[in-house]
Amino acid sequence: MVSISLCMIVKNEEDSIDRCLSSVQDIVDEIIIVDTGSTDDTKEIVRKYTDQIFDFEWIDDFAAARNYAFSCGTKDYIFWLDADDILKDEDRKKFSTLIGGLDQSVDSVTMDYYLAFDEYGNVTSSVRRNRLVKRGNQFRWIGAVHEYLEVWGNILNSDVAITHSSLQHDSDRNLRIYEKRLLRGEDFSPRDLYYFANELVDHRMYEQAICYYDKFLATGKGWIEDNISSCGKLADCYHELGNQEQELASSLRSFQYGSPRAEFCCRLGFHFLQHEDIQTAIFWYRLATQLEQSGDNWGFFNPVCSTWLPHLQLCVCYDRIGEYELAHDHNEIARSYRPTDPSVLQNKLYLESVLSHYDKVKAGGDRHE
């Protein structure tokens, strides 16, 4: 069986590091922690799990810190997490099974990264990442901010999921790093332009974000998933600025980079529903329910747009045009995902009342024929 080094970078993670390490301590062979300047009790907590704690002077470069952490690993494969990540019990079992049968010809193993959940436990945002890599290949991290691990070779897509469970974070940190780089006159790569625009959106700086998304798309060198995501982010920016025309144009712009995605079908459905074009809204919402979901999605993925949301909106649409049975059917599908959602339950009561009334009217008409 292959051996595993867990290699992490941390700073002031006293609230989350214990939870993270306790979820993986018995499924890895060594734990490497690189501290970039903690001033809290992070190191003291980490010592419960490992004595391999290394200091690294923070230089506003995540890739540099992660590459140093990777250089400290000694086992066959390197596994990486952030301090606010955990493996849930089901995924711990899957991880152990994976390691038990892993062929050493595999260069990298990808895992889903669950970023957000709704109140019913449904995943609302996920992405796939290279998580377990062969140490001998000396794969490198690239990028000072929003760094990525450059890998090649035999890639295995696993069914293991890492769950992100953030308790706190420095919301201005990444923006400050980008702004310092701009002041130094650095040229941004297409990837930098995209992620800088994302930071600007997070800080509600919508006009600037639009500028940098347009710059990113104008390079023609972006990853297709980032191109498509930029169109959605642009639509969000224009929505916040009250520009419906450009919001619609940004959604349609996504079709330049690939076939329709459920997210954009829902965006278009909502646009036409707002404008009382119910049949067109129905077309786009129905398409959202029919699109195949990718199990190996590399871009950010929101399952909401292909599960309960379009069905709930179809319920609204069909109710508007008096197709109450269809409205009820779609509401029931939405209820299968969100069984206690107040809106769904209210729709259920309302539609059952309407359908009951129509059944009585029909029965009365039949008796008088």
UniProtKB/TrEMBL annotation:
Keywords: Transferase. Residues 5-124 form the Glycosyltransferase 2-like domain. Pfam families: Glycos_transf_2. PANTHER family: GLYCOSYLTRANSFERASE, POLY-BETA-1,6-N-ACETYL-D-GLUCOSAMINE SYNTHASE. One of its GO terms (molecular function) is transferase activity. InterPro entries: Glyco_trans_2-like, Nucleotide-diphossugar_trans, TPR-like_helical_dom_sf. It comes from the Bacteria. This is Glycosyl transferase. It comes from Paenibacillus selenitireducens. CDD domains: Beta4Glucosyltransferase.
